[in-house]
Here is the input.
Amino acid sequence: MAGSRSLSSGLRALQPAAFGVEPSGERMARIRRSPHFKDGVFQNPGGPSRIRPSGSTRDLAKTYFDKDARNRRTPHGAMPVYPTTAADLARPPATGLRLTWLGHSSVLAEIDGQRVLFDPVWGERCSPFAFAGPKRLHAVPLPLTALGPVDVVVISHDHYDHLDLPTIKALAGTDTLFAVPLGVGAHLEHWGVSADRLRELDWQESTKVGGLTLTATPARHFCGRGLRNTQHTLWASWVVAGEKHRIFHSGDTGYFEGFRDIGADHGPFDATMIQIGAYSQYWPDIHMTPEQGVRAHLDLQGGDASSGVLLPIHWGTFNLAPHPYAEPGEWTKDAAEVAGAAVALPRPGEPFEPAGELPVDPWWRTVTAPVARHWLRTRGTGSGTDAGTAPSAVQGDLDLAGDR
Here is the structure.
């Protein structure tokens, strides 16, 4: 028995710091009391979901290693990153709300006089290792230190492309607060964030940061960083409500009916930040297609397409799925146009105000070839959905639009 304990301790010592740590003690006791924790793991809303790729490993490998497909997944030439400066962000937003998409799911939200940083990833790779794993496809728009003071950092879940060790360690040296889902605080404490700067929430729990109310809301995803995925840390979407403005960040999620409930309870929103990339037919339960992302935006707005602005996130920075690089942008653009929804398409680092002029230029076309618009198939030739789900009303409209 002593030898077994010694071996376990030795293996833990060899693990990279980026693996983080498992929740324990009172934190684990609180997890066990959660109504969303059952049979030793956190449960997804809407019933069980597949968190491992479906289909054959052979088919998935063929999809990933096909030469032409690989070529389409990567931009060619220098990415058009917006040259954000500290001066850009030092000027208060004229309307009280400004969003700066910094790549992938990282967004700086300046809302009613306070600054919220969602899922900050400044690292070169979303991986526990500096020498392997998905490498960023564009430079960070500006150094982390150039952002200026941040009131609260919000983390959606503990996957490497959302919770980045180098970035957290840099932020640990500031006085910012951290709002995280239940259990994720164990990683942050391990990396140097003091417990008094953590606001660790279960779904439907809220915390106040200055004049803002932050609420963790459900999402349909999963968690895990180390060799063992124990499902002991929660994943969440987030609502941030100020005195005059409300925003929503989806984190990573599959589509589910709960978006309507979130919208009814907390919306409508001035802006929604919605995951529209890294989807695949191999994992339809845990990531949304762009069409589903537009549908989620409409659900959050109570079905009112004229309400709020959709900011697409979780794309453009890392190559994490088999789809072409340009497809999330093109599909979101088309789906939003058909639905009549306002969508912002900023370059990484480009600030905009949802109540002002929106960036809508399809910047990715300068570094990518045209993509096949399979989602615009005419009725009778297939639904065009990519994730194995039934077509929605938005998809039905797209089917009628035909190829172009």
In short: Residues 41 and 230 are 7 Å apart (CA to CA). Confidence is low (pLDDT under 50) at residues 1-11, 378-404. The chain has eleven helices and 16 strands.
